[in-house]
Write a structure and sequence with these properties.
The protein has about 100 residues and is mainly alpha-helical. It has helices spanning about 15-35, 40-70, 75-95. Helix 1 runs antiparallel to helix 2 (about 40-70). The longest helix has about 35 residues, at about 40-70. The protein is flat and about 60 Å long.
């Protein structure tokens, strides 16, 4: 056989990658829609785009925190949980 051996880690993040792909498509579609609807609805759609763009990284960190906890790497899981707490606290204080 020519080439490197198969990577056993290939595909392990496929669900996360799919979720991020869907988020990108959703944000793009809603942003484009916000440009062509009446201004009142367009503003609401624009705010929903901002909310999704802000929530996706937090969701990714939460996803990884759960994964790290399941794998037994409690250091990374704890740091990820604290990061989510800090971001949530900042959002609550800002709002």
């Amino acid at each position: 056989m020519i080439g490197p051996p198969p990577n056993p880690r290939r595909g392990r993040q496929r669900h996360l990658i799919r979720a991020l792909d869907v988020a990108v498509l959703l944000v793009g579609a809603v942003a484009a829609l916000a440009l062509v609807v009446p201004p009142a609805l367009g503003e609401q759609l624009a705010w929903s785009v901002v909310a999704v763009v802000a929530a996706v990284p937090v969701g990714r960190v939460a996803w990884l925190a759960v994964r790290w906890a399941r794998l037994g790497d409690l250091r990374y899981a704890t740091i990820a949980a604290w990061l989510i707490v800090v971001v949530t606290g900042g959002a609550l204080l800002a709002g």
